[in-house]
Amino acid sequence: MTTALPDRLSIDPDSPHYDEEVLGQDIGVIFNGKEKTNVEEYCVSEGWIKVQAGKSRDRHGNPLKIKLKGTVEPYVKDASVESTDD
Fold this sequence. Notes:
mainly beta, four-stranded antiparallel beta sheet, three-stranded antiparallel beta sheet, 2 helices, 44% strand, DUF3297 family protein, DUF3297
């Protein structure tokens, strides 16, 4: 089951870019050549990711996010690569 990942994806259920089926897969994001594990939202075509800004919250209790610009490469993690125990 190889499906192309969307151009824009968010883990926030209130976002219009939230897709539960895609998030059911194990997705990783490489940002500027480094794997990021704290990505809340990304956009490949515009070249940015959003990450949580520490423990800061807005007036509604939602975490504040910082937009970082650079090269974004989302991918589906392969379980067989991670489970190589020697």
